[in-house]
């Protein structure tokens, strides 16, 4: 009942917006005990952001990564604090390595010719988990924990709105999945 809530605008498809958000938040000089990185797009057609990166990768992962990096000092000062990365079980159905086992950066922000929406989503969610694990390793000694979570199968949202096939699949699968 004593909580003070204030909405702030943030566009993860713009690294300038992420930077502006972080600067504005820092200027308020308030603690940050929990940061939940939950925004995502799914099944979106290929397009580039104003930063010339594939939009699914930037919105689902890179924007969150940049935000956490910019607010890392605030999180450490606010200890105990935590970061929650909302990922997906879909991360299991992809890889971000080439055939020789090395990280392939071209898979993260693919060209239009190499783009498949489902793979872009899966890769971005794998990046979320890898980032969360490394963030926890680096910041837990400073009182900041990081966890990645799967929100549950087919929780109702409009994330599948970009293509009717995804909407149909989500609708057909819903009766056979657990729900909150």
UniProtKB/TrEMBL annotation:
InterPro entries reported for this sequence? NAD(P)-bd_dom_sf, SDR_fam
Task: Give the Gene3D superfamilies listed for this entry.
Answer: NAD(P)-binding Rossmann-like Domain (3.40.50.720)
Q: Where is the signal peptide?
A: none
Domain of life, per UniProt, equals Eukaryota
Q: What are the protein's GO molecular function terms?
A: oxidoreductase activity
Q: Which SUPFAM superfamilies match?
A: NAD(P)-binding Rossmann-fold domains
Answer yes or no on keyword Oxidoreductase. Answer: yes
**Which keywords appear in this protein's UniProt record, sorted alphabetically?**
NADP, Oxidoreductase
Q: Which residues cross the membrane?
A: none
- Family assignment from sequence similarity: Belongs to the short-chain dehydrogenases/reductases (SDR) family.
Query: What is the protein name given in its UniProt record?
Result: WWOX oxidoreductase
- Which species is listed as the source? Podargus strigoides (Tawny frogmouth)
Its lineage reads: Eukaryota, Metazoa, Chordata, Craniata, Vertebrata
């Amino acid at each position: 009942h004593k909580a003070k809530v204030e909405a702030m605008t943030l566009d993860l498809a713009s690294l300038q917006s992420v930077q502006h958000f972080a600067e504005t938040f820092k200027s308020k000089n308030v603690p940050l005990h929990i940061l939940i990185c939950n925004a995502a797009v799914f099944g979106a057609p290929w397009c580039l952001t104003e930063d010339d990166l594939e939009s699914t990768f930037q919105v689902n992962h890179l924007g969150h990564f940049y935000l956490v990096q910019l607010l890392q000092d605030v999180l450490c000062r606010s200890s105990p604090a935590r970061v929650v990365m909302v990922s997906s079980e879909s991360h299991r159905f992809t890889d971000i390595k080439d055939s020789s086992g090395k990280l392939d950066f071209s898979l993260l922000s693919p060209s239009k010719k190499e783009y498949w929406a489902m793979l872009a989503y899966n890769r971005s969610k794998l990046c979320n988990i890898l980032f969360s694990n490394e963030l926890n390793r680096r910041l837990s000694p400073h009182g900041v924990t990081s966890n990645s979570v799967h929100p549950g199968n087919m929780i109702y949202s409009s994330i599948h709105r970009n293509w009717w096939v995804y909407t149909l699949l989500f609708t057909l699968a819903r009766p056979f999945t657990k729900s909150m």
